[in-house]
Design a protein that fits this description.
The structure is a single chain. The chain is an all-beta fold and 225 residues long. The protein has one helix at 45-49, and strands at 7-18, 24-41, 56-63, 75-78, 81-93, 96-105, 121-127, 143-146, 153-156, 165-171, 179-183, 186-189, 199-201, 204-208, 221-224. It is built from 1 helix and 15 strands. A hairpin with a 2-residue loop joins strand 13 (199-201) and strand 14. The model is unreliable at 107-117 (pLDDT under 50).
């Protein structure tokens, strides 16, 4: 059973309000990562009966968390895709409780979520202590600059000493950054063996290293794109 929960998914939570035109505006509240069992579904009776047009459906199973119960308005991010939750069913198995989630991704019929505007300032920094979702907001960033929402982010870490973890904080209204490179031989995807999965907290996305990266001391300008 334990080996089945081998996929990392991100849960994004929002609060909703109406704009003057009557549309839905969603402001990010929190984001966290959990282990899950994920299966791609070629067809789901629940979704088919609801007559929802979807491009891909998923069956997701997670352990229940009393402190963070999942709700239908939460968003799931899996392998870079944003999944809409269709249903959540509780399951009891022995002494453990699980949630069986039907979710899908589609470009049709779904009300689009518009994050609250947060400006163009990007922050980045470094620390001897590893980052996680619990300390990125309290961290004091050493550098900041303004960038465009759709362009690359050039973060200058040259002032950081060798042996530090790196973190980047950029507005949620920006195009999500899914690659990084420092040199031709030092680059990769986000997430990969160097960077954790991007998390969303309070209107910002955070990218941080899972280990101390092997960066050349005089070549620490990292471009995120």
């Amino acid at each position: 059973m334990i080996s089945e929960f081998n996929r990392r998914i991100i849960i994004n939570r929002y609060e909703f309000a109406r704009d003057p035109a009557g549309g839905n505006i969603a402001s990010p509240l929190s984001s966290w990562t959990i282990w899950a069992k994920v299966e791609t579904s070629s067809g789901s009776k629940t979704l088919d009966n609801a007559q929802i047009s979807y491009t891909k459906a998923f069956r997701i199973k997670v352990r229940t968390e009393k402190s963070r119960p999942l709700i239908n308005t939460d968003e799931i991010v899996y392998l870079g895709s944003n999944l809409i939750i269709q249903s959540i069913i509780r399951e009891n198995e022995g002494r453990e409780n699980f949630l069986n989630i039907e979710a899908y991704t589609t470009n049709e019929g779904a009300e689009q979520i518009t994050p609250a505007p947060t400006g163009s300032t990007v922050y980045w920094g470094w620390s001897l202590i590893p980052f996680d979702a619990g300390n990125v907001e309290a961290f004091t960033y050493q550098q900041q600059a303004d960038f465009t929402a759709t362009g690359n982010i050039n973060a200058d870490y040259t002032a950081a000493s060798v042996g530090n973890y790196l973190v980047l904080k950029y507005p949620a209204t920006f195009t999500q950054k899914d690659t990084w490179f420092n040199a031709l031989a030092n680059q990769g995807a986000i997430p990969d063996q160097v960077f954790e999965s991007t998390i969303l907290i309070g209107g910002f996305r955070y990218v941080f290293t899972r280990l101390i990266p092997a960066l050349e001391q005089n070549n620490k300008v990292i471009v995120y794109g």
